Amino acid sequence: MNVYLLQVINGIGVGMLYFLLAVGLSIVFGLLRFVNFAHGAFYLLGAYFCFQAIQWGMDFWLALAVVPLLVGACAWVVEKVVLRHVYAQAHEFHILITVGLALVLQELVIVIWGPIGDNVAAPASLQGVVMWGSFIYPKYRLFVIGFTAVFSLLLWYVLEGTRLGSAVRAGSESTEMVSMLGINVFRMFSLVFALGAATAALAGVLAAPIRGVEPFMGVEALGIAFVIVVVGGMGSFFGALVGGLLIGVVQSVMSTLWPEGARLMIYVAMAAVLLLRPHGLMGRG
């Protein structure tokens, strides 16, 4: 099988994980105009909670369902207790408090699990490879592509076909108008923030068997998430999807063509998009 075609498929899988990571950040910013630098920490918690659940003997499939809900619940509490009080402040306050929250969560991970990373085994049913003629590919990575595609469709339906989604889209234009319609804006803020954290945690759970867990993976994830949001366009669901796939494929292909510069090319791609589309590929001008 052509190595570049294999890398493109790898890039699609990585890009779908990047989409899950970035879409929550994009939605939260689009609705709340809130710069959340703690977003990568929820990805970190998702990965480590999955690791701990498997260490306790929990089935991976159960962890896949429970961990994002648990992290989402934690984010819901944090939003109500801490973040709600700074929404009306300048973005500098948003940055300071969420960076502080991210550092606290990162240090807690180091205190509980130590500074050294660890591996997470893929479920037994997804270990090994799939062979179709000359096509050979790991089962787990194929599962990640399929699962994230289905989840993306469900998330799209929630945002486009439900009352919550209508309120979120209207709120991204004018929270005052939504409030006048009788919708509890603060409750909607809490739900959206929890949903964003849960999708980041889901990305962490799915990524754990691929890359393992280590305490600083949240910082790396946050940087990539911001790149994707900038490339795709602030507040855009499809922008996060397109941006995630673009960055994933660029990184994967460049890891073959120029391994040392693969990460650099992520930022080159971002710069190229911004030169052509300053508001992102799917952003509103």
From TrEMBL:
GO cellular component, one term: plasma membrane
Membrane topology, from the record: Multi-pass membrane protein
Record GO terms (molecular function): transmembrane transporter activity
Keyword Ion transport in record: no
Bilayer-crossing regions: 12-32, 37-54, 60-83, 95-116, 140-159, 189-210, 222-250, 262-280
Keywords: Amino-acid transport, Cell membrane, Membrane, Transmembrane, Transmembrane helix, Transport
Protein localization: Cell membrane
Gene Ontology terms: biological process: amino acid transport
CDD domains membership: TM_PBP1_LivH_like
Broad class of where this protein is predominantly found: membrane
Domain of life (superkingdom): Bacteria
Record PANTHER family: ABC TRANSPORTER ATP-BINDING PROTEIN, BRANCHED-CHAIN AMINO ACID TRANSPORT SYSTEM PERMEASE PROTEIN LIVH
Family named by the database record: Belongs to the binding-protein-dependent transport system permease family. LivHM subfamily.
Protein name: High-affinity branched-chain amino acid transport system permease protein LivH
Organism: Achromobacter agilis
